[in-house]
């Protein structure tokens, strides 16, 4: 049965990295499409566009981070092997859910905001500062979810 | 904390002196033009339309400027820049004095150089288009290479004979041959270009007696023959034409090479000059525009400027020599006017002023938040990045950039800001024991500094995140309360005592009261703390209920608005919780760094290539982590200022001060007032 515990933890890690990563991929994709459109007019905006396109990518990193935390905790990344029972495994799985879910949806929403802000700097390049802040507002909720996932993972006693 | 005071200055100048007056003010770089004010100050019947600028060679200036723009557009892409790209982007512009520029302008025969460049450009364009034409002709000629008659037979023909060229589907070639043979009865000739098996269409040339034209064209059309225009200028038989065109092409290419070399030489010789002249002419145009900006009577120009109070004496001093011809009148900005904003910050806070500009300038009577926000931003950035190693790398990079490229203005401030932020990052990294994550603990070779590292550690967010979370939220409470206090002070300053005590004092009292109440439930301060907390909170609630409906008519609506305003407590709660990102981002940095280290150790065990992979992962991973985390730390600590802090007291809406200045693109004018 302790194998099942570890596998539940692995599922949690997989969901965290997979869902948050998918969200980021979609978000970065949306922003990239808008960016390519702008650059047909003005290729000189590459730097700014890249910056804005990169913003929805953080959720993927947060997901990866949580996944690493989860498998580190159950000793799959080297170190001493830990015995994990089913309840502990379930706990780890649940702890991964905040960043998996919030990461997925917030990355897509952030991608749309980034795309809109890319449109904005096409017309007003001097307002880049503001254009960077608006997508960051969306990211707040991914940061909060990451925080919860880490605190939950941290509080599960093995 | 307040923005710098400005005065409205009206200068009446005799037309004779206006040019020198504007030149003198331009050098000071401290006067912002106020646009024309219709009919104020001078009775409108005395005003004359301002057309003097035209007489003064405005037209010449504009045409010179367009010449220069042409030269730069044509020659700049060919110019070999000196120095690296980064240096040109960040470094100072080459210095030059205004008089140097003026003499350069008078020495240079701009129109001659421009016409030379225009000729070169036209020649190049012509030769390039001829080459394109030759290429398309050659394509046709290659396919009908075996046609033995000269091409003029097709393009012009003779009195009796004419020819047409066109395309025809391959499968109809046979039937065309038959039909054509019948129609002309030996009085014509038919040529098909050779075609490959799978080709759908081929070229056909029909030569026939001119009086058979209509019949031949009709049967050709029946076989889907579609005529194409024979290119003009082709005379000889295709094979010979091909040879001639190839030679012509060679000549043209040589010509293009020569012209390109010529333009490269021109670029080498004239681009630096054009850049200087571009700046010079831009300055002159700005002056002309200034002279024409105000109203003008028959003898006098009326110029109006915003001038910072500090610079007023300087303005009066430079205008002293024109005392006879100039009258200066200074007044304070009238209420309702919108003077430009100059941020006036002490040296230590100046690097943070780009952040205020980014949000939007304060209003003239508002508060400049730079000084108030600077310590918080400094600390928050450090907490979000929170790694000593990253801080050192970042600090070294920005310090190097600052020393290497002598930057100026906002660019310099921004780099200084990031350098300062790296210091706070190193500090936070040291007290949390994070140096490139857990590098010191992971790799054996660092074991000698382990005791040193551990000696300064106060707190480990990785193993004790809750303490760090509490610290983050506490900092949030401090900043929010500070924001409320500023708003309260601002309201007092403006004489709005009810607003100060009601709107801001009420919330301050509630928040402090709830905190003390909460603290007492953890046994801090004992029973008296509980009483104090409860009564402060109650006092706050009472104040809000009594004051928040004060604009509403009638008792019932006052009461309802007052009670509903308490609902805002959720927004304060949200604001405080938002500071938990300080922990989250700090943890994310340490964790990503830790993962990089863990992976490095993992792959280093692989035989033979392990060391290479380990090196790649270590350096690549940490580089990626630095970039991503600096971006995150910057954006999120900025957001805490903008959204959580500024919202308590700050209203933007000001307009940045943009004086008449040497706004040059390529050079730095050495005799300008300031070198910002």
What is the overall number of helices of chain A?
Answer: 5
Rough shape of chain B?
A: extended
Rounded mean pLDDT score of chain A = 89
Our measurement of the CA-to-CA distance between the termini of chain A, rounded to an integer number of angstroms, reads: 15 Å
Account of the 3D structure:
The complex is a heterodimer of chains A (about 160) and B (about 675). Chain A is an all-alpha fold. Chain A has a single domain (about 5-155), classed as lithium bound rotor ring of v- atpase (Four Helix Bundle (Hemerythrin (Met), subunit A), Up-down Bundle). Helix content of chain A is about 85%, strand content about 0%. In chain A, helix 1 (about 1-40) packs antiparallel against helix 2 and helix 4 packs antiparallel against helix 5 (about 130-155). The longest helix of chain A is centred in the first third of the chain and has 40 residues, at about 1-40. The model of chain A has no long low-confidence stretch (mean pLDDT about 90). Chain B is an alpha+beta fold and about 675 residues long. In chain B, strand 8 (about 295) and strand 9 (about 300-310) form a beta hairpin. Chain B is extended, with a radius of gyration of 40 Å. The two termini of chain B are about 20 Å apart. The mean pLDDT of chain B is about 85. Classes of the chains: A mainly alpha (about 160), B alpha+beta (about 675).
Describe the structure concisely:
The complex is a heterodimer of chains A (158) and B (676). Helices cover 83% and strands 0% of the residues of chain A. Chain A has 158 residues and is an all-alpha fold.
Quickly list its features.
heterodimer; A: about 160 residues; mainly alpha; Four Helix Bundle (Hemerythrin (Met), subunit A); about 85% helix; about 0% strand; B: about 675 residues; alpha+beta; Alpha-Beta Plaits; five-stranded antiparallel beta sheet
């Amino acid at each position: 049965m302790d194998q099942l515990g570890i596998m539940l933890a692995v599922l949690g890690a997989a969901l965290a990295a997979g869902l948050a990563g998918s969200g980021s991929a979609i978000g970065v994709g949306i922003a990239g499409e808008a960016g390519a459109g702008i650059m047909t007019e003005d290729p000189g905006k590459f730097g700014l566009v890249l910056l804005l396109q990169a913003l929805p990518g953080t959720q993927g990193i947060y997901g990866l981070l949580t996944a690493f935390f989860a498998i580190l905790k159950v000793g799959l990344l080297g170190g001493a092997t830990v015995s994990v029972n089913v309840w502990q495994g379930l706990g780890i799985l649940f702890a991964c859910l905040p960043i998996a879910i919030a990461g997925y949806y917030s990355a897509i929403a952030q991608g749309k905001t980034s795309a809109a802000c890319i449109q904005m700097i096409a017309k007003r390049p001097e307002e880049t500062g503001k254009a960077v802040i608006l997508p960051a507002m969306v990211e707040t909720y991914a940061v909060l979810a990451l925080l919860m996932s880490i605190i939950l993972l941290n509080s599960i006693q093995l | 904390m307040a923005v710098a005071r400005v005065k409205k200055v009206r200068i009446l100048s005799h037309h004779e002196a206006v040019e020198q007056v504007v030149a003198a003010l331009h050098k000071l770089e401290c006067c912002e033009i106020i646009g024309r004010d219709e009919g104020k100050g001078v009775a409108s019947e005395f005003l004359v339309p301002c057309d003097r600028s035209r007489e003064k060679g405005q037209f010449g200036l504009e045409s010179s400027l367009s010449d220069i723009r042409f030269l730069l557009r044509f020659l700049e892409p060919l110019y070999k820049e000196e120095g690296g790209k980064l240096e040109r982007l960040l470094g100072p512009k080459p210095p030059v004095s205004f008089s140097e520029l003026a003499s350069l302008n008078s020495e240079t025969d701009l129109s001659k150089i421009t016409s030379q460049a225009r000729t070169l450009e036209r020649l190049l364009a012509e030769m390039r288009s001829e080459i394109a034409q030759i290429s398309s002709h050659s394509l046709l000629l290659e396919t009908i290479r075996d046609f033995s008659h000269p091409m003029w037979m097709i393009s012009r023909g003779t009195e009796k004979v004419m020819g047409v060229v066109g395309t025809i589907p391959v499968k109809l070639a046979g039937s065309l041959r038959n039909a054509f043979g019948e129609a002309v009865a030996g009085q014509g000739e038919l040529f098909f270009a050779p075609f490959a098996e799978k080709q759908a269409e081929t070229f056909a040339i029909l030569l026939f007696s001119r009086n058979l034209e209509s019949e031949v064209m009709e049967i050709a059309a029946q076989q889907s023959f579609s005529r194409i225009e024979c290119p003009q200028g082709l005379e000889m038989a295709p094979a010979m034409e091909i040879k001639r065109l190839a030679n012509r092409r060679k000549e043209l290419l040589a010509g293009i090479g020569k012209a390109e070399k010529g333009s490269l030489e021109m670029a080498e010789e004239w681009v630096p000059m054009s850049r200087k002249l571009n700046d010079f002419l831009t300055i002159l145009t700005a002056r002309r525009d200034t002279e024409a900006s105000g109203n003008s009577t028959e003898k006098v120009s009326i110029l109006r400027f915003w001038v910072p109070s500090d610079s007023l004496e300087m303005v009066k001093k430079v205008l002293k020599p024109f005392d006879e011809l100039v009258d200066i009148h200074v007044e304070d900005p009238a209420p309702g006017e919108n003077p430009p904003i100059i941020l006036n910050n002490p040296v230590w806070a100046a690097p943070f002023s780009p952040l205020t500009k980014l949000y939007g300038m304060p209003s003239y009577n508002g508060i400049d938040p730079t000084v108030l926000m600077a310590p918080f931003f400094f600390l928050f950035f450090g907490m979000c990045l929170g790694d000593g190693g990253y801080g050192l790398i970042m600090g070294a990079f920005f310090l190097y950039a600052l020393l290497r490229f002598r930057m100026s203005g906002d660019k310099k401030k921004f780099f200084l800001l990031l350098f300062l932020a790296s210091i706070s990052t190193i500090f936070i990294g040291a007290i949390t024991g994070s140096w490139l994550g857990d590098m010191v603990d992971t790799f054996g070779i660092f074991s000698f500094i382990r005791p040193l590292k551990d000696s300064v550690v106060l707190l480990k967010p990785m193993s004790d995140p809750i303490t760090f979370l509490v610290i983050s939220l506490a900092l949030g409470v401090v900043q929010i309360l500070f924001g409320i206090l500023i708003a309260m002070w601002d309201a007092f300053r403006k004489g709005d005592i009810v607003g100060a005590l009601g709107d801001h004092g009420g919330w301050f009292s509630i928040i402090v009261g709830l905190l003390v109440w909460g603290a007492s439930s953890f046994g801090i301060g004992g029973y008296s703390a509980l009483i104090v907390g409860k009564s402060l909170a109650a006092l706050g609630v009472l104040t809000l209920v009594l004051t928040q409906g004060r604009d509403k008519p009638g008792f019932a609506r006052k009461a309802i608005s007052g009670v509903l305003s308490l609902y805002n407590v959720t927004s304060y709660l949200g604001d405080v919780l938002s500071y938990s990102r300080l922990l989250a981002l700090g943890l994310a940095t340490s964790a990503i760094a830790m993962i990089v280290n863990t992976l490095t150790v993992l792959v280093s065990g692989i035989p033979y290539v392990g060391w290479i992979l380990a090196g790649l992962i270590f350096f690549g991973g940490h580089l990626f982590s630095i970039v991503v985390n600096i971006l995150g730390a910057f954006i999120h600590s900025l957001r805490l200022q903008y959204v959580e802090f500024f919202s308590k007291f700050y209203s933007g809406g000001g307009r940045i001060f943009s004086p008449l200045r040497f706004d040059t693109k390529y050079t730095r004018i050495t005799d300008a007032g300031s070198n910002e």
